Amino acid sequence: AYSAEHTIATFHTVREHLAPRIIGQDLESAQALLDRIAFIKGNQFARAALDIAWWVLDAKRRGVPLHVALGGTADRVRVGADFGIQDTLDILLEKIQGAIDQGFPRIKLKFRPGWDLNMVAAVRSTFPDFTFHVDCNAAYTLADADLFRKLDKYRLAMIEQPLADDGMSLINHADLQKMIETPVCLDESVQSLSVVQAAIRLGSCRVVNIKMARVGGLTASRDIQALCGEHNIPCWIGGMLESAIGGAICAELATLPNFTYPGDIFPSSYFYTNDIGKPEIVLSGPGEVRTSQVPGIPQAPDPDLLKQWTVEHVALRG
Fold it and tell me: pLDDT (tens digit, 9 = 90+) per residue, 170-183?
């Protein structure tokens, strides 16, 4: 499993523990909300649900787009293309060419034992100057350091989460980063601001992937990118199969100044035949997504689809 949290547990935590602490309260800031629910340890996805809702509602109350409320300015953000393991290298190379033709500025390649060095060699030989990085999804150990040394010559933008997210993650990644020239990017290990503070002190990475739900919401995401900016560590937005609503919020977050690498923000059609959020996410130009021009974000749940897919609901009022 990706995380110890799951949908039922997150729903229960919000309903039984977090929401009762904020219903009827005058919360003038996101930090005031977070202070009210600080008694709960972990549960970052549940925490994020309320923090993100506060930011969107506050932006609507103030009459400004969400990215403006967050401190961003861009009217569009750059996004990348991602490709997993394919049946053949020829299929992968064909898909990469298609993404380049569509104007995507960078491509992420899944990297696994059996689909690793030879794959990268073929890709770099075919596309000598394009920006690529590999995502290992924690599939390797320090015993594979020689493999990562061999990647240095392929001039990758980064190696994303090469090692396991466990109690030794930050130390092991720091050891690996000392052995190789290619920047290490932490992904699964980035679960809070304090983890990133530790990673910076240890030298565990030179790039950080931020998934807003995993780190506890927009407040934490904003703080992490600012901290990384102070230490010249670029950030980028990671995707978690968001609906159009989540994708739009990711795009708003990506306008902040230290999100310098194109993010994983995808058109709705990549994942869904009928996205529950409307309007759906679409590319506004080659490799880019437009940010909100209305208070908050324009996306909202489609009532009929929401009813169709709801398995449990609760109404909480002050």
Answer: 999 999 999 999 99
Separation CA 130–CA 157 (nearest Å): 10
pLDDT in tens, 176-210: 999 999 999 999 999 999 999 999 999 999 999 99
Q: Where are the domains of the chain?
A: 7-67, 70-301
Residues that are catalytic: 110, 211
pTM over 0.85: yes
Among the four given CATH numbers 3.20.20.120, 3.40.50.80, 3.60.120.10, 3.40.1380.10, the one describing domain 70-301: 3.20.20.120
